Amino acid sequence: MVRFDRYMLSQLMWLFGFFSLVLVAIFWINRAVQLFDRLIGDGQTALVFLEFSTLGLPRLITTVMPIATFAASIYVTNRLNNESELTVMLATGTSPWRLARPVAVFGLISALMMSLLSHVLVPTAGQQLAEREVEISKNITARLLTEGEFLSPTAGVTFYARTVGQDGVLRDVFLSDRRMEAQQMIYTADQAYLVGNSDGTSLIMVDGLAQRLTNADLRLSTVKFEDFSFDITSLIRTDVVITPKLGYLTSDMMLSNWAKVATMTNTSIGAVAEELHDRFARAAFCLITALIGFATLLVGGYSRFGVQREIVISFLLLIALDGMRGSLSGPVLENPSLWPIMYLPSILGGLIVCGLLWVASGGWAMLRKTERVA
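Now predict its structure.
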């Protein structure tokens, strides 16, 4: 029997890895297209795109993990049923409760992985992703290396370059500076270069025209220049501060003092309670998703017509329980003392699993027989 447990557990883990890989690839491609267009369009390199994609993977994996767990449980149980392996085990006197042990172990492994992601990896990756976004927003050089678009790196400044050559030369440059109330400046040049030094970054414009419009008397002055240096260091925002968010905090930081965490993140105590216990509830729900798929198919037994009906029933049960999870956040946000209801879907799912295994073990037939005898 221990050998059968190892065999079934290995099948579950292999299929879980396969479904996780496929689902992550599908979701990642959908997200990567938008991310690639945004980052590359802002002048970032492919390495930055890969870094952002990697930092977003932990949260993406938490989304697909319950689905992969359920799919693996359904697929393996259905295959063992079709090949009569479960029928043979039941015929030898093995109870459905005993057959559920490797599935429960598989669910616990999935729950542990979900716990590691939810409590540690997702908050850490989210914090690092926010820091990198701030660093990139300060990188004015990369933002200006976008051709054919009017850019506004800061309020009152507009920049345009028709083309950006392979050698880094900007051609047909337009720069409008409206930050001063007394006057407005417009610079146009045939070519421009971005030059960095120890003091900052400068835009060197060649063969251009500078136009100054005084707002008091609306007088326009123009000056042609062969080369002109414009300091763009002041356009870089250095006052950006990353505001602490609940999603960036690991769970151990939220266990001590909810009021302190709420004040630090500018949220409510209910939001802290909902975020913390939702992480635990997600891990518990992974265990339930594995057991529901197994128990529902085991009740159906072997049939040469297939178990499509049982698969649909198990899927509907999972949808109902998952939908219940989404509706329980509101009461906890209003009243933090109601946090135990976050585990209600997992508890209800556990009761459903116990009921299905009881029916599969003949409990319902024995009850009806007892009623007839009585």
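The chain has two domains: 2-137+243-373, 146-235.
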